[in-house]
Amino acid sequence: MNDDMKRTAPNKDRPNDKPGYAARAAASKILAAVVDRKTPLDGMIDTEHGNPAYRALGPADRALTRALVLTTLRHKPMIDQAIASLLDRPLPGGARALSHVLAIAAAQILYLDVPDHSAVDIAVEQANADPRNKRFSGLVNAVLRGMTRRKAKILDELESVSPIPDWFAERLTAVYGADTAHAIGRAQLQPPTIDISVKSDPEGWAARLGGTVLFSTGTIRLDAPSGAVSDMDGFAEGEWWVQDAAAAIPATLFGDLTGQRVIDLCAAPGGKTAQLVMQGGQVTALERSKSRLRRLEQNLARLQLSAETIAADMMEYQPEVPFDAALLDAPCSSTGTARRHPDVFWTKDFSDIEKLAEVQYAMARRALDLVRPGGIVIFSNCSLDPLEGETVVERLLADGAPAERAAFPAGRPDTLAPFFDANGAIRTTPAAQLDGKTGLDGFYAVALRRTDG
Ligand SMILES: C[S@@+](CC[C@H](N)C(=O)[O-])C[C@H]1O[C@@H](n2cnc3c(N)ncnc32)[C@H](O)[C@@H]1O
C-alpha cells in the first residue's frame, strides 16, 4: 500500500482513522517535542529520519502536519493567550500533552482555512484517545467551541500581542529599539517566499519560474511557489539552488575569486560553497558533520560544480598551505531565520546565544590561522543578536588577534548600502527591505584581513 492509499482509506468506525486525525496527532507530538524538549523541528519533519508519527503519514497529511506545527509556532504567544482567556483556571501542570492538542486546534480555528468543526471534533477525539487527557475532553470541547464563537473578537484582541517570546523581544528592543523589534516580530508572521540563486541568466530563469529578480544579490524570488521545489524547472538540471537573499550576501562580498584558493569552513549544505565556485575560486569545502557533508556533495553534484570536500573539525584541521581566503559561516542561534524556522525561539534561550558567541569567537580566531598573511576571512552568521556578530569582532580586535577590518571589494550594488554599519560590516534584519521587497533573513557579515607574518 502506498502512502496516498493509506491516507485515503480510513476506517470510519475507529476515530483514530478519521481523515486528518493522524496528521493532527503527529502535529501535537511534534509540537510537544519542540516546546517541552527543545527538539529542533527540521530533524523531526525529515522524510527519512524524522519523527515516526510523521514518517507514517502520506504526503498530503505530512503537508498538513507541517502547516499545523509551523502555524502554531509562528503564533504561539497569541495562541497561548487565546486559550488562557477561555479557561476559568490554568490547566494543571501535568497537562502538557493536552495543552499541545489545544494549541494545534486553536491554530486551525484562528489562523488556518480548516472547518472549525473538524478542528474541534478531532481535538476532542485526541483528548479521549489519551488516558491522561480523557477526563478533559469536555473542557477541550468547551474551550474550542468558545473560541470558534468568539473568533473575531479574540483575533482583534491578539493584534497587539508580539509573536516572539519575551526573552527575545526584550533583547531585540535593547539592541534595535522598540520599532524595529516590533517590525521583526510582525515579519515573523509573513509566509516566507522561496528565494533561489541561479548559476546564470537570472532574468531568463525569473521568467521561466514566475519570479522576480532581486538586483542586489541576483536572487530570484518566488512569491507564490506551488509544488515541490525538486519538481520545478531547472532543479534536476542543476541550474539553481534555494538560498535566502540575505544568505546570498556574505559570499558575494568576496567579489571575483579567480585564481584564489578559498576554504569554506562550515560548508554544508553548500549554498555558499556553490557561490564561491561560481565566483571563480578554487574551493575547499570543510564540514564537521559527515552526513551534512554528504548532502553538500550531492548538492554540488546536482549543480555540476566541483570543490574539494573534507570531513573535519575546523578547529583541528591543518592545511599544508594556508588559503588566500576563508568563509566562516559559523553555527549560530539562527534567530535571523525564524520566519522559516519559527521553532528557534522556543528551542533556544539567551544562554544558548552566550555559548554560541564563545564558539564563534574561537572559530574566528582559528579561521585567521588558516589564511596567509594578508588573506581575507569573511565571518558571517544568521543570528540577529550582535553578541554573535558585531561583539565577536570587537572582542577579537580588542584581544589583539592578528586582524584588521577590511573593506569588501568595490563594485557591489548601491542597494546594499543601507545594510552597511559604521564599521563597514553588513547587518540585515527581517524588518528591512531589499530592493523594495520585504522578506529577508537576519544576517551579519564582516571582512577581516590577517595582519601578521
Ligand atoms: C550555518 S551552517 C553553514 C551553512 C552553509 N555555509 C551554507 O551556506 O549552506 C553551519 C555548519 O557548520 C558546521 N560546523 C559546526 N561546527 C563545525 C566545526 N567545528 N568544524 C566544521 N564544521 C562545523 C555545522 O555542522 C553546519 O553544517
Describe this structure in words.
By secondary structure, the protein is of the alpha/beta class. It has two domains: 156 residues, Orthogonal Bundle (N-utilizing Substance Protein B Homolog, Chain A), CATH 1.10.940.10; 256 residues, 3-Layer(aba) Sandwich (Rossmann fold). It is 43% helix and 13% strand. It contains 19 helices and twelve strands. The strands form two sheets. Strands 5, 6, 7, 8, 9, 10, 11 and 12 form an eight-stranded mixed β-sheet that branches. Helix 5 crosses helix 7 and helix 8 packs antiparallel against helix 9. It starts with a helix and ends with a strand. Bound molecules: S-adenosylmethionine (SAM). S-adenosylmethionine binds next to helix 15 and strand 6. This is Ribosomal RNA small subunit methyltransferase B. GO terms for molecular function: RNA binding; RNA methyltransferase activity. Its EC number is 2.1.1.176.
Specify the number of helices.
Answer: 19
Which overall shape is indicated by the principal axes computed on the Cα atoms? globular
The helical percent reads 40-55%
**Total number of beta strands:** 12
Could you give a quick summary of the protein structure above?
This is Ribosomal RNA small subunit methyltransferase B. This protein has 453 residues and is α/β, with parallel strands linked by helices.
